[in-house]
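Many introductory courses stop at the sequence. We go one step further.
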Amino acid sequence: MESSRVTRIGKWYTFAAAHQLYDNNLSEQANEELFGKCFRLHGHNYQVRVEVMSAFLEHGMVLNYYVLDDIVQEHVLNRYDHQFLNDMSEFEDTLTTAENLVDQIADLLHPFINRYGPSGHKANLSELEVREGERSYAIITY
């Protein structure tokens, strides 16, 4: 009988970046009313949780943590660490909210995580979380 179990692994990563929630179509006062203190330039030590799943384990692994580290370093940390997010091309026409950031990071990671896995078996991105602080976060679940 075939098992329908799936194993998930995850790891936390951190990067520092600045941003500002500001809509150029609104007045300064309207931006402050809509975004509160976040309409001013400020920064976060973002925490990113990457979770990967697979129904197949080889050598007891969904995906080697070193491979996951390399993917996240290359495609997320090298891109966002110590940057002003508002100046980045992916946020040219969208606000730098946690929701939009987690969406952008998912788009960056998805093709790379989904092509790795033991012996060619596919490992899939199952959940991605971005925290702006202790109480604010956004999650994408597949």
